[in-house]
Amino acid sequence: MIQKLISIFIRDTELHSKKSRQKIGLLSGWINVSLNLLLFIGKLLVGIISGSVAVTADAFNNLTDMGSALVTILGFKLSAKPADKKHPFGYGRIEYIAGVVVSVLILVVGFEFIKSSFDQILNPAESGIEFSIPMFIVLVLAIGVKLFMGYLNKGFGKAMGGSETLDATAFDSISDVATTSVALLSLMLSQFVSFPLDGYLGVVIAVVVLVGGVRVLLDTISPLLGTPPSEELVRRIKELVLDHEEIVGVHDLIVHNYGPNKILASLHAEVPANSNIIFAHEIIDQAEREISEKLGITVLIHLDPIVIDDKRVNEMREIAQECISQVDPRFTMHDFRMLDGKKQINLIFDVEVPYERCQTKAQIRAEIEELLRQRDARFHPIITIDQSYIGD
């Protein structure tokens, strides 16, 4: 069904283009606007007729969802703007900003729900809540519509290769199923109890809305601050680089996300020091082009020459790696060089460490230096401690 909807609005030639992401996002947005507007009208009528604050609160929750969908539409439209002088990396992060606005709207409505629910608890309506079969049918239909919207948004997100905005919208739709179910329960049970059950259940709905708002806020702020790339993306980048026999190692990979359609990366590629520099440069250029064509990523590769055919250097490299692994097997070494002397042997290298390390950089450095000097008192380690930018 989702693919059929997509095929109606997107031509086959556009399915895997950057435009398809925007069109799927807009399609999802307008469907959400339409359905949430219908749900708001239906629930508001039920809430007014029945006098239920929980149902009325749930109606305004749908109105907020409609506003969120409009913000999402605006976000997808603006994020597709081409790069310019002011924003040379494009406007892709506007999609994340739209998510922040949506979450703030959700939180505002959640606080309003809490206020109205407490008012109902402290000052319960004297007339009570009226229940009827048509009202029951409207709320049951609303639950079905929200389940459908959750399925639809999740499917649209997968169709565009992943979207935090649509994933959040899908989750919000499923959480609305819970809030509407609570409102329905309130409508059915309030006529049998004397205490203001409607107000208490309204508080439950408000808490669900607030929790959802906080979750969306955290999910959308995270990529704005900068998150590590997925393990799959890191694996594919390294595979494409190391597919070239002339490249013997990769390190210092950094991936910058400027929106779902704009990713920049940089890395260091190790090549034998005795390689022809022009040939090595051609290989690096070829690797950059392949990553761009296959992954849609702009990548800059720095060439690092390393000695791999010197027995003495290789022996020292193995000793250094053994000592590093003794400190923590998760640590990795790169950019190893050696200046050999009779009284002093300079071992120059970088060590990449994960964020979950227990020691400080100075402690790590001191521990590795101590282990190396135990192997040979002439060793003079010059160690740079690097932080991983791709997670663990």
Description of the structure:
By secondary structure, the protein is an alpha/beta fold. The protein is built from eleven helices and six strands. The chain has helices at about 1-10, 20-50, 55-80, 95-120, 135-160, 165-190, 195-225, 230-240, 275-295, 310-325, 360-375; strands at about 250-255, 265-270, 300-305, 330-340, 345-355, 380-385. The protein has a three-stranded mixed β-sheet, covered by helices on one side. A three-stranded mixed β-sheet has the order 4-5-6, with helices on one face. Helix 2 (about 20-50) packs antiparallel against helix 5. The two termini are about 40 Å apart. Residues about 10-15 have low confidence and may be disordered.
CATH topology of the largest domain: Alpha-lytic protease prodomain-like
- Using the 3D structure, state the CATH architecture of the largest domain: Up-down Bundle
Total domains: 2
How does the major sheet shape up?
A: 3 strands, mixed
Low-confidence stretches: 12-16
Strand order of the largest sheet: 1-2-3
Task: Give the CATH level 1 class of the largest domain.
Answer: Mainly Alpha
> Helix share of residues?
55-70%
Mean pLDDT: 82
Shape: elongated
CATH superfamily membership of the largest domain: Cation efflux protein transmembrane domain
Beta fraction of the residues? 5-15%
The tally of beta strands, per DSSP, is 6
**Structural class computed from helices and strand pairing:** alpha/beta
Domain Cation efflux protein cytoplasmic: 229-305
Main location: membrane
Organism: Bianquea renquensis
GO cellular component, one term: membrane
